[in-house]
Design brief:
alpha+beta; two-stranded antiparallel ribbon; 2 strands
């Protein structure tokens, strides 16, 4: 097996984790959190990945490559899914309450 020097190659890897928290309301809106089955979805919508510039004016190379694939991501929605969760409205709490994420984590453990 061939060995690679990942630092020399410039390899960067990340991990994104999605976890549904058992809290009274969602982190960035006041919608209730309910564990739902996919078959109970009221509607669905889809998105395509778009590589956007970071705050430093750069585009992530991996996102640029994934954009070329044009993979369709299907999102299931429910009667408790709001415009913020659908990325159709600004997350007001993230502006007014920058501590909302930490607060949500604390609330989920009680």
């Amino acid at each position: 097996m061939e060995k690679y020097d990942y630092s020399e190659l410039g390899l960067k890897a990340g991990l994104e984790i999605h976890q549904q928290l058992d809290s009274k309301e969602k982190l960035f809106c006041r919608c209730p959190t309910l564990i739902r089955d996919v078959k109970d979805s009221d509607f669905e919508f889809f998105r395509y990945l778009r590589a956007t510039e970071s705050e430093m004016g750069e585009k992530d190379r991996a996102a640029v490559e994934q954009t070329k694939i044009r993979r369709k991501y299907i999102y299931k929605a429910y009667d408790t899914t709001c415009l913020i969760e659908n990325d159709e409205e600004l997350q007001e709490n993230s502006i007014r309450k920058p501590w909302a994420f930490l607060s949500g984590l604390q609330n989920s453990s009680t």
